[in-house]
Amino acid sequence: MKNKKIEIIIHKFLANTATLDEIDILAKWVDKNKSSFQEEVELHHLITGAGEEESTEHLKKNLTSAFNQARLVAGKVKKRNLLLRYAAIFVGVLMLGIYAYEQRSPEVILEKEATITFEDGSKKETLNDKATGIVSTTNAYVVEQEGTKITYKKVASNQKKVNRLVFNTLDVPYGKKFQLVLSDGTEVYLNSGSSITYPVVFYDEGPRNVVLRGEAYFTVASDSLRPFTVSTQLLDAKVLGTEFNISSYRDDEHIQVVLVEGSLSVGRNNSIGSGDVILKPNQLASYSYSDDELATANIDVSSYIAWKNGILLFKNEDFYHIAKKLERHYDVKIEIKDMQVSKESYTGRFKTETIEEILQAFQRIKSFDYNIENNNIKINLKN
């Protein structure tokens, strides 16, 4: 177990600020604690290099730079020779760290798949991320899949008001995300643990209505004659053409609607305008179940919609709510055993990291213990 002094020296070495004496101390410690140094290097990269497109190359560059910088500042022969003698220790361990980073076990691939439930009750698995082809077809529409994208294409203009709408439901399990293109061209990005019910073909005239459970990002095809409404458990979002995000998970305390572009009316289900709020871009409408109130606020939309690009972005967010998002993203169950940990706030950006790497990154900010058994994670305040 490394002491606080060694931890500080490691951080200074990786930041190219360690003195020659500190490098001397570190090299002797590394010689006997290679695995601990390797873990620290990987965690350092996780914090400082998250989001890099070429993470392995970024790690190699940082590690090589740290040693070369130290060697260049060595002014005395004795110190220079000392550094060269320790070079083999550092380079050997750093290369082991790089190899381990490159060979990390990939995330567990979940067996659950997104499914489409047709109106007659039959289910069609959307297979896996590589599936391509026709999912379903009738004389009115064709459903095609391309990886994680499902597209409804209208092939006949015979869906008038006098006809009955036919509904499908797309369910996305925890650990998955899916994109849906409706027959009118509206694009829907569904987050983990979400489902949406929608007509396979909309009426040629009149409103377009869908029902959402969970979270989704909408890019609505503009049509002034056919207003588009997304209904959640309690709220309706009514638009003509816009981009917005709705989060309406049943186990959350709020329903949140964030407007990115256009204009959006948000109100109670089946309301006739009384009490509705009109959102402008970069505004949030939040309904509280406990207070039974709908409030608005100006916000930075980035942290609300980053999930659409496969990014987990937390900005000064308490661990209780972060844990909920991690549960959905990784299909795990997180039990926080201490309220103090639950209330701690964290900021971080993650894309390709495993759940354990994220927990280790947060541990560097505020110390806590965790235990992972299968898909269950227990978190306690560190003694």
Total helical elements: 9
- How far is it from the N-terminal to the C-terminal residue, by CA? 16 Å
Largest sheet: 18 strands, mixed
State Rg. 26 Å
Judging from the principal axes of the Cα atoms, what is the shape? Answer: elongated
Strand content: 25-35%
Q: In the CATH scheme, what's the topology name of the largest domain?
A: Jelly Rolls
CATH class category name of the largest domain: Mainly Beta
Proper CATH architecture of the largest domain: Sandwich
Q: What integer is the average pLDDT? A: 78
GO molecular function: sigma factor antagonist activity
Protein name: DUF4974 domain-containing protein
Pfam family, one: FecR_C
InterPro entries: FecR, FecR_C, Ferrdict_sens_TM
Commentary on this structure:
- The protein has 383 residues and is of the alpha+beta class.
- It folds into three domains: 76 residues, no CATH class; 191 residues, Jelly Rolls; 71 residues, Phage tail protein beta-alpha-beta fold (3-Layer(bab) Sandwich), CATH 3.55.50.30.
- It is 30% helix and 33% strand.
- The protein has an 18-stranded mixed beta sheet that branches. It has a three-stranded mixed beta sheet with strand order 20-23-22.
- α4 packs antiparallel against α5.
- The longest helix is centred in the first third of the chain and has 26 residues.
- The protein is elongated.
- About 8% of the residues have low confidence.
- One of its GO terms (molecular function) is sigma factor antagonist activity.
- Keywords: Membrane, Transmembrane, Transmembrane helix.
- This is DUF4974 domain-containing protein.
- InterPro entries: FecR, FecR_C, Ferrdict_sens_TM.
